TrEMBL record:
The lineage of its organism: Bacteria, Pseudomonadati, Bacteroidota, Cytophagia, Cytophagales. Coiled coil: none annotated. SUPFAM superfamilies: Alkaline phosphatase-like (SSF53649). GO terms for molecular function: hydrolase activity. Belongs to the sulfatase family. Residues 342-492 form the N-sulphoglucosamine sulphohydrolase C-terminal domain. CDD domains: G6S_like. This is Sulfatase. Pfam families: Phosphodiest, SGSH_C. It comes from Echinicola soli. It comes from the Bacteria. Keywords: Hydrolase.
Amino acid sequence: MHKLILWGAMALVMVSCTKPKEQKPPNIVIIVSDDHTRQAVSAYGSTIAQTPNIDRIADEGVLLTNAYVTNSICGPSRAVLLTGKYSHKNGFRRNSDSKFESDQDQFVKHLQAAGYQTAWIGKYHLGKDPQGFDHYEILPGQGYYYNPDFIVKDSGRVNRTGYVSDLVEDAAENWLDRREDDKPFCLVIGHKATHRTWMPDLQDLDKYDEVTFPLPDNFYDDYEGRQAAMEQDMTVDKTMILGYDLKMYAEDTKDGNVSRLTPEQRAKFDAHYKPIHRELDSLNLSGKDLVEWKYQQYMRDYLATAESMDRNIGRTLDYLEAHGLDENTIVIYTSDQGFYLGEHGWFDKRFMYEESFSTPMMMKYPGVIQPGTKSDAMVMNLDIAPTMLDAANVEIPEGIQGESMLPVLTGEEKQGREVLYYHYYEVGEHNVSPHFGIKTDRYKLIRFYNQVVSWELFDLEEDPKEMHNVYGEEHYQKVQEEMKVKLLEAIKKYEDTEAEELFHEDISSTEIKRK
Ligand code: SGN
Ligand code: CA
């Protein structure tokens, strides 16, 4: 009974401000992919990929052209999404050794308290104990592409036959079918695509066979003046493995994904990759020819893996329409971070450089956000939690560090953020040195520490590909000082005491601390 009163009160408040005039609070669907980057989304102007279903969300709402993450890696990014707090506040700094304390405050818990039904379906990657969800069906850890296991709330581990993107969507629709339809819902759909090792649905394997992809113009970056970029281990050339990543397997592969295939599925898989393998053997490539061959194969697998996800996002949107839910449902599409598609010679993410610091983000909110809107406001994944609470007319708790995007997206406020703050912590795989920094509309300042100790400053207007570190250059002295002031302000604003200590350390020259 009291929930009904609450909703009545909410409806009244909503009529009197910019919120929709519907009587009911909006449903929420948040679709989070894994490593799917803007360069591979046609709504962002990608010419190499077509993502018609993802684009539908932008067409019917807003495309955010300046959306960024606070820490470019999977688990940490999801923890930020749920808590609306930076990694140093929510405790999940690294995939490698952090534990997500799911008893902490999360926006879904507030939605639950306000009468929402909540569910997380698909890749979660924050352990096995989600809280704040009435239902979950999550992939254990990274999960598998083919015939994956799911951990189902109250039932435990189950194995399902099929391709992961289809199975995640099936489970999401099953939950929607079963929900109590007199209550609003918040559903998070976590896709596994397009994570390494880019395993496409078998029906999509040949999709990009005939395409030759242009090499990014900084593919052969020499990393001059950027020591951390020099030290990384994530190049197509040296790090990407022909067998493991590009499926040029010897017969006795131990790869977890491939060994899960049924004999029938394996036959289709082999029918695609074996001729490519034979061709590779016959070409006898080396040097640049081999690197560029790897790049083409990487791109084909990556984009083919996105196909099924895009198709299944189309199913989500169709489901909402078919059930008359589309007019009162917010749909957000985002990734846990961006990814390198050969820029700087790389795959993977982690760096605060544009390709992995940014993330695709678009949102439809019928009646509130004008279809076909493009916003260049600087927003972060940190803002999703408060935005959803704002949309549901639920009070945004004190500790949340993000800001609701709604005032900017509805035109109520003109200006978004002026400064974006970033902090990456992981030490290990891919050897990217920890770093923190800020970005403004024109400049980016980064402080690397722990493995590489250095400063980097980029003028994004002059150097959008971040090839020229101007830190210490005479011409940029004033900008450098101003950016440092802004960085310290951001550190203090978000109470990142570890970064504050490092900020004050006097470092005169670049240092490398090899493990
Ligand atoms: C795995 C991948 C890495 C990737 C991390 C983090 N290696 O460890 O290449 O950077 O995940 O990705 S793999 O051989 O297991 O594919 S994240 O999206 O989970 O953060
Ligand atoms: Ca990821």
